[in-house]
Amino acid sequence: MNHYQKKALIVEVVEDDKALSLSLSDNLKKEGIGVIVVGNGEEGLAIAIKEKPDLILLDILMPKMDGMTMLRKLRALNEWGKHVPVIILTNLSSNDEKRMRDVTELEPTYYLEKVDWKICDVLEKVKDRLGLLPSQQKAGVS
Fold first, then answer.
1. Could you tell me if residue 135 is inside a domain?
2. CA 80 to each of CA 36, 60, 73: distance values in angstroms, whole numbers, following the listed order
3. Range of 71's domain?
4. Which of 79, 81, 93, 103 allows an S-S link to 74, with CB 3.0 to 4.6 Å?
């Protein structure tokens, strides 16, 4: 009998839009992923430091501390903070050169504009980063 227990994967959703965070949370839970939801960057940073989630979904425009400040502090924190996958979900357009330079500097895993994606797109990116997608090389290899 195998006594090894796999650690449950945890995603932190840092989003002030309650309807969106609820939808993301519900869909992640259906995939068997644990979820922590917070509504601002200040709380998001504190929870991230304490819980060390496997991935963070991060809005940019939020109360108390915006997502860029949270990500900057997270990346400066320690090795875990430097490397934890972060998917930015925002209403802000990627057409702003300065913003994109700032974002690129902080190395998010993905930058998704809210108008350009559906929940299933976000779930696929989360599952991909967490290693939950089936290997495409298993099929058709001779």
1. no
2. 18, 21, 12
3. 10-129
4. 81
**Is 139 domain-assigned?**
no
Q: What is the pTM of this model?
A: 0.82
Does residue 35 belong to any structural domain of this protein? Answer: yes
Give pLDDT tens digits for 23-61. Answer: 999 999 999 999 999 999 999 999 999 999 999 999 988
Structural domains of the chain, count: 1
Q: Are 135 and 129 in contact (CB under 8 A)?
A: no
Contact assessment for residue 24 and residue 13, using Cβ atoms and an 8 Å cutoff: yes
Residues 6+ apart with CB under 8 A from 75: 81, 82, 106, 107
CATH number of the domain encompassing residue 102 = 3.40.50.2300
Instruction: Using the structure block, give the residue that is written with the tokens 């917070």.
Output: 38
- Per-residue DSSP letters for 41-97? HHHHHHHHHHH--SEEEEESS-SSS-HHHHHHHHHHH-HHHHHS-EEEEESS-TT-H
In this predicted model, what pLDDT tens digit does every residue of 76-105 receive, in sequence order? 988 988 899 998 887 765 555 666 666 666
